[in-house]
Amino acid sequence: MTNTTGLIFLGPPGSGKGTQASLIAQLYHIPHISTGEILREAIANQTPLGKQAQPYMDAGNLVPEELVLGLVKERLSQPDTEKGWILDGFPRTVPQAVFLDKLLEETPSTSERVLNLDVPDEAIIERLLLRGRKDDTEATIRRRLDVYREQTAPLIDYYRDRGSLHHINGNRSPAEVTEALKQAMVNF
């Protein structure tokens, strides 16, 4: 029986977690899974859950949490996840983390590691303003950071209490952050 490591990347918008998750996924040859990607793939492949999600997506509405949880379960059961996986953007709440824990109990050879990229607000604001997107105003960025903290602070406490949380200083060059993530994975 092989041991599977599931990595959960946490961090506020603009922390670089998507970029780092992609880099680590390439280095370790494991899938980088985001909930948006799961939804798009399920719809493109016309899976039963994808067919249920499509009307919500087509109408520009949020996909109900039960469907998202089903899609995550479906995605983590695919063969390419046997050596490991990285979740980016999931879980976002404690109930989602509890769901994930129950799911992982079904595969006892899987261990989870939670890597939280810490970046000061001012650095995030600067990064996101440099992207030049229309919706990236300082006010909207600050609001997204507030929403992230409201939703995620309990999640960070949840994983800290379980002893699976590791903080990474994300306010460095991408290469330095990647090295810190690799070290954290070895030292966990």
Explain how this protein is built.
- The protein is an alpha/beta fold and 188 residues long.
- It is 57% helix and 15% strand.
- It has 8 helices and 5 strands.
- The protein has helices at 17-28, 35-44, 48-58, 65-76, 94-105, 121-131, 138-162, 174-187; strands at 4-10, 32-34, 84-88, 110-118, 165-169.
- A 5-stranded parallel β-sheet has the order 2-3-1-4-5, sandwiched between helices.
- Helix 3 crosses helix 4 (65-76).
- The longest helix is centred in the last third of the chain and has 25 residues, at 138-162.
- The radius of gyration is 17 Å and the shape is globular.
List keywords for this structure.
188 residues; alpha/beta; Rossmann fold; 2 domains; five-stranded parallel sheet; 8 helices; 15% strand; globular
CATH architecture of the largest domain: 3-Layer(aba) Sandwich
Q: Radius of gyration from the CA trace?
A: 17 Å
**With helices defined by DSSP (H or I, 4 residues minimum), what is the helix count?**
8
Element-by-element helix/strand order: EHEHHHEHEHHEH
Concise account of the structure shown:
This protein has eight helices and five strands.
Task: Describe how the helices and strands are arranged.
Elements: E1 4-10, H1 17-28, E2 32-34, H2 35-44, H3 48-58, H4 65-76, E3 84-88, H5 94-105, E4 110-118, H6 121-131, H7 138-162, E5 165-169, H8 174-187
Parallel strand pairs: 1-3, 1-4, 2-3, 4-5
Helix pairs in contact: 1-8, 2-3, 2-4, 3-4, 6-7
